[in-house]
Amino acid sequence: METTHRLFVDDSRDLRAVADDSVELVVTSPPYPMIEMWDDLFADLDPAISSELESGNGQAAFEAMHTQLDQVWDELERVLVDGGIACINVGDATRSLEDSFRVYPNHARVTEAFEDRGFDPLPDILWRKPTNSAAKFMGSGMIPPNAYVTLEHEYVLIFRNGGDRRAFEPGADRRYEAAYFWEERNRWFTDVWTDVKGELQGLEGVPDDVRERSGAYPLEIPYRLLCMYSAYGDTVLDPFWGTGTTTLAAMCAGRNSIGYELEDTFLEVFEDRIDDIGTLSRSVGRTRLERHREFVDRRRADGDDLGYEAVNYETPVMTKMESEVLFREVESVNRTDSGYAVEHVPLETRN
Question: Where in the numbering of this chain does the DNA methylase N-4/N-6 domain appear (predicted)?
Fold first, then answer.
């Protein structure tokens, strides 16, 4: 099985290289309005944003920043298939302007934007990110009532394009081979992920101003979302590609991908990140199998029996739907004019 991964150094407000109805899934983390590390990026797109910030008009700056993101959401409506899913990782912002401190609810504004474009909101996910310091911003020390809660979570907002779910041909191998285990379903399809942590990205040798504009999420997040909301052979789009974490996840998960990124330096970083993609993809699949076998051992120790056998691996499974699960690992990566062509083979493991 071969997957393709196309990369564009371009502005995702115009996805002209992506055809209508050609993407099954979007997984991305945009720059967060009203987070200072992205002020310059938004100001480059609309110079009026700088004026609003300098004048202390936070609400106007917030809306102007989201107006720039809205142009990307317009494009997602066009390129996503009917029933396709968009997963938007975003955090709210807290900020003081003109000595006034408040929260800017990015998740609410993004949800409104997608609803305006005909997307159906689905239940979202919260995951806890590590904070920069153990100290909390109190506002008034230890004396009530003027302290503020510290934001320690981000949202994965989930939307479906149109009201209908995607349809597949009966018994489609690419769908059943992409099944997840019963216990993975129970862990993944919950609205709070407490087992995912943020991570620092390896950006050695990258200019300071570029490093400061990277806000990559942990690989576990896009990998889970790809497994949850796509099948083998589907295409995932990340219009805010950054250091390519979504593409790494797609390579590990056996999906095609498209990435858009304004900063070409990140593509150089990605070249280093894929050096060991074969090992990484193999490790991801084997870890899932090992965790499943640990789950089986615990069930058996409790006296429970699993009613089905996996076809491709020597392990029982809970349901018939997961019996055909087949993991893929990367065998080779070849550079192309527009990105990468990746050859996948079935994951083989020891018993």
Answer: 23-271
Can you tell me whether residue 192 is helix, strand or coil? strand
Q: Which two tokens stand for residue 85?
A: 């899913």
Between CA 159 and CA 113 the distance in angstroms is 11
Residue 124: which residues within 8 A CB-CB, separation 6 or more? 107, 155, 156, 157, 158, 191
What are the per-10-residue average pLDDT scores of the chain (351 residues)?
Answer: 96 97 98 96 96 96 98 98 98 91 96 98 91 57 81 95 89 94 97 75 43 67 98 97 95 97 89 91 96 96 92 96 96 95 88 45
Q: Give 93's Cβ-side CA count (13 Å radius).
A: 21
Q: Which two tokens stand for residue 130?
A: 């590590």
User: What is the biggest distance separating any 2 CA atoms in the chain, rounded to whole angstroms?
Assistant: 67
DSSP 3-state of 47: coil
Nearest 5°: phi and psi at 327?
Answer: -80, 155
> Which CATH number applies to 2-279?
3.40.50.150
How is the chain split into domains, by residue range? 2-279
Global confidence as pTM: 0.92
